[in-house]
């Protein structure tokens, strides 16, 4: 048998990914309104009971708005990208980025979400960002909604639980498509759309304790997001010829814990529960396996006339996803449990874990890529992958993050093998190329970046940027189109 060597295609989109609420700061400048992310407080690790402090209750909101709360809200501060974007984009360009994923903060454009007119200062800010990226030939990949539902929509409709939010989202999408039609080609409707079923407030601005049936509200809000995504896709194709809309899934690949057929069945069901979201986006209809889930959980999706036709007529152009880890499923779970991104899982004895308990599984990425491509036959885009870790700054200011290089290189290697398997992969965007506020824990010490930001968990620091060892490594990866790992 001859030796086969897989290669990355020419034009592969190497780069990194961020979210407005984790980097921008300036939460109340230039007319921006409050969003869901502005209500997420920092809880020190020794006081945290689980990795889901991102849910917010009515009482918490009341205390925050009344001024009673003395907590810190790190996503309001970010890393001051709002004022430092030129410096930060120059550093990304130095690494040779071909693409940079960012989100538009919806409440910068429509401060309450339902305003009659957009906020010009917000529109101009993103004009400036896209112009700066264009200077370096960096392709923007723009997420319309990345855990940033305007609070005004929560107050008025309980976020995505209210069908009225669809029209406000579509008007927002139409506004930015029109404004940036000559600057942005690649769009994503909702970041990790499955989040609304895990943390409804984060994923959809839904305050669960306002709902008589919170489980029903999750999936009703999700249906509204599906319809809104399809209608936004329709608008995109009308306004930007050649524009592409992607969906985005937090891919949680699941293996059976043992060869016991009951475990195999449970893993299959868990994988279906995760792929349900992309099934609707890509195939344009609810999969039949969800009928049983809805029936057993007392959920009845309320649809308006024409919803099914909208989903069918306007599916996404590509599938983007995040991949950090794999999980295990068991019909009778017994054994050590490890923390994961949004979810916990049984510990896999064949895998190592990060300092936050996320199981590191590079080969699982190849499996996930093949599964997704086999299922949908649509271009794939890995728009989040990375290692959150503690970084030590040496006396001379250097940061030797060999652990990050090892993690990323092993995942990129498996990605290359998947391309060799025949997978159509558009690009790779490492999560958090510059240190940012953690989504799930609001920490700064959980660092992902190639670029270090001098800021700690308490918000102290100069915000100075510096290059880690991984900065030069990733630069060489991009220069060699993945040949040098």
Describe this protein's structure:
The active site is at residue 384. InterPro entries: GH, GH_1_N_CS, Glyco_hydro_1, Glyco_hydro_1_AS. GO terms for molecular function: beta-glucosidase activity. One of its GO terms (biological process) is carbohydrate catabolic process. Belongs to the glycosyl hydrolase 1 family. This protein has 485 residues and is of the alpha/beta class. It has one domain: Glycosidases (TIM Barrel). Helices cover 38% and strands 14% of the residues. The protein is built from 15 helices and 16 strands. The protein has helices at residues 20-23, 58-66, 81-95, 106-109, 120-135, 151-157, 164-179, 200-204, 214-239, 261-283, 289-296, 307-313, 362-376, 402-420, 469-479, and strands spanning 13-17, 99-103, 139-145, 186-190, 244-250, 253-256, 318-322, 326-329, 337-339, 344-346, 352-353, 359-360, 380-384, 425-431, 451-453, 465-467. It has an eight-stranded parallel beta barrel with strand order 1-2-3-4-5-7-13-14, surrounded by five helices. A two-stranded parallel ribbon has the order 6-8. A hairpin with a 4-residue loop joins strand 9 and strand 10. The chain is globular. The two termini are 25 Å apart. The model has no long low-confidence stretch (mean pLDDT 95).
């Amino acid at each position: 048998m001859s030796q086969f060597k897989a290669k990355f295609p020419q034009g592969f989109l190497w780069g990194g990914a961020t979210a407005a609420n984790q980097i921008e700061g300036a939460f109340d400048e230039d007319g921006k309104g409050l969003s869901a992310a502005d209500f997420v407080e920092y809880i020190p690790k020794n006081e945290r009971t689980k990795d889901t402090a991102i849910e917010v209750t009515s009482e918490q909101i009341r205390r925050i708005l009344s001024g009673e709360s003395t907590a810190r809200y790190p996503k309001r501060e970010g890393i001051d990208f709002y004022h430092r974007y030129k410096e930060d984009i120059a550093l990304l360009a130095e690494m040779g980025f071909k693409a940079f994923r960012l989100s538009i903060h919806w409440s910068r454009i429509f401060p309450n979400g339902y305003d009659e007119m957009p906020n010009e200062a917000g529109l101009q800010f993103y004009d400036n960002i896209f112009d700066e990226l264009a200077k370096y030939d960096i392709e923007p990949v723009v997420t319309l909604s990345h855990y940033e539902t305007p609070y005004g929509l929560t107050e008025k409709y309980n976020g995505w639980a209210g069908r009225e939010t669809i029209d406000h989202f579509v008007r927002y999408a139409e506004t930015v498509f029109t404004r940036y039609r000559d600057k942005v080609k690649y769009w994503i409707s909702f970041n990790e759309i499955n989040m609304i079923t895990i943390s409804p407030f984060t994923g959809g601005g839904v305050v669960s304790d306002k709902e008589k049936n919170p489980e029903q509200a999750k999936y009703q809000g999700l249906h509204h997001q599906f319809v809104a995504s399809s209608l936004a896709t329709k608008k995109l194709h009308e306004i930007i010829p050649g524009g592409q809309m992607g969906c985005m899934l937090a891919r949680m690949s699941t293996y059976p814990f043992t060869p016991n057929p009951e475990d195999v069945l449970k893993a299959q069901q868990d994988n279906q529960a995760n792929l349900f979201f992309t099934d609707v986006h890509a195939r344009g209809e609810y999969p039949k396996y969800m009928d049983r889930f809805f029936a057993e959980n007392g959920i009845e999706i309320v649809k308006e006339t024409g919803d099914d036709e909208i989903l069918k007529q306007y599916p996404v152009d590509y599938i983007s996803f995040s991949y950090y880890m794999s999980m295990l499923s068991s019909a009778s779970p017994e054994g050590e449990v490890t923390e994961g991104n949004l979810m916990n899982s049984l510990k896999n004895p064949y895998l190592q874990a990060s300092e936050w308990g996320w199981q590191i599984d590079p080969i699982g990425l190849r499996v996930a890529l093949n599964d997704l491509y086999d299922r949908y036959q649509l271009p794939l885009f890995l728009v989040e992958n990375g290692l959150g870790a503690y970084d030590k700054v040496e006396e001379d200011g250097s940061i030797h993050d060999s652990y990050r290089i090892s993690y990323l290189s092993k995942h990129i290697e498996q990605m290359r093998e998947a391309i060799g398997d025949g997978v159509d992969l558009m690009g790779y965007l490492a999560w958090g190329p510059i240190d940012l506020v953690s989504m799930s824990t609001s920490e700064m010490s959980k660092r992902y970046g190639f670029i270090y930001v001098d800021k700690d968990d308490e918000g102290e620091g100069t915000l100075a940027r510096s290059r880690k060892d991984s900065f030069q490594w990733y630069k060489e990866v991009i220069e060699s189109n993945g040949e040098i790992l």
